[in-house]
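Query form — protein Glucose 1-dehydrogenase

QUESTION: What is the three-dimensional structure of this chain?
INPUT:
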Amino acid sequence: MNLKLEGKVAIVTGASKGIGAGIAKSLAAAGAAVAVNYVSDKAGADKAVSQIISDGGKAFAVQGNTGSEGDVQRIFEETIKNYGRLDILVNNAGVYKFESLEEISREEFDRQFDTNVYGPILTTKEAAKHFGEKGGSIINVSSVSARKAMPGAAVYSATKASLDIISETFALELAPKNIRVNVVAPGPVDTEGFATLGLKGTDFEKGLIAQTPLGRIGQPEDIGRVVTFLASEDSAWITGERITTAGGMK
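ANSWER: The structure tokens for Glucose 1-dehydrogenase are given below.
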């Protein structure tokens, strides 16, 4: 087993299920101790933690809304209390709702931007205080929708496009502290959310697969492996980059 993250500590936001849980499991499998953040799905977070521990890894669940400054401070404080350090931050927490132009409201706009954009700003600011002298790695989870227009996704796509440029900016600002900031942009992934939307086995899913050169929907572990690479020393000379992880979908 190649434990390239052995001795490292990671926070993964929005990790109770789906892509976030897949990322947490991948980091733990590589040797990192992981703080599994959740907002309301305690059962999901506890399940992810149990799976990590049963596989021989280290993890604990920590509740907190990344759009709240107080919650963010507590998430980091509890992680430091449990593991004594911080090396990796994965900003995966995100919300979405697909609406036509006529349906877009200020309330929904604020909800998505608070979590998808302001949240990563708060967590990045906090992480920079806790990384040690050797720096750290921040990986932000964006989406192909940041650069691929889709009807009904105007607000969500705008949040992810914002996250892309914010990541590049912070990569420049934090480079003197040896803190790297990169982006992973998944395409369609087979998660609980995908199933909840009723997309499994539909013509819509078939259409997505048809647009994907590798011919399948992604799995959470597909994203987790790329995040693990960006969290490790294998990517020590990479910052300010965006890796589209979508089976060739553009």
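ADDITIONAL NOTE: The chain has eight helices and seven strands.
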